[in-house]
Write a structure and sequence with these properties.
Blueprint: H1 2-31, H2 35-84
Helix pairs in contact: 1-2
């Protein structure tokens, strides 16, 4: 998982960086009157940013689901251990 996180971070950072540079190039094209090239650069840069966002979102959702599944397994394991020693949900400690 660590390797996956490193790769996703490195690659999405590169995608954001490239998009930033493309938008800078687009500003130069706008200033020189080449609006069609500038607009195309901005469109591609925005698509690149959206793709990076989608990758990060998908990874976040996957990690979140893995945490939920892990919590569920821990709960099930704890219930099984407690059942094995004769403790159930109805047992209460009286003061």
């Amino acid at each position: 998982m660590q390797k996956l996180l490193e790769v996703v971070h490195t690659e999405t950072s590169a995608m954001y960086n490239i998009a930033f540079k493309m938008k800078g190039m687009a500003r130069s094209f706008y200033e020189t009157g080449n609006d069609s090239v500038a607009a195309r650069l901005v469109m591609v840069a925005e698509h690149l940013e959206a793709s990076a966002n989608n990758i990060n979102k998908a990874l976040g959702e996957t990690i979140n689901q893995q945490v939920i599944d892990g919590q569920r397994r821990c709960t099930d394991l704890l219930k099984a251990v407690l059942a094995g020693v004769g403790v159930d949900d109805n047992d209460r400690k009286e003061d």
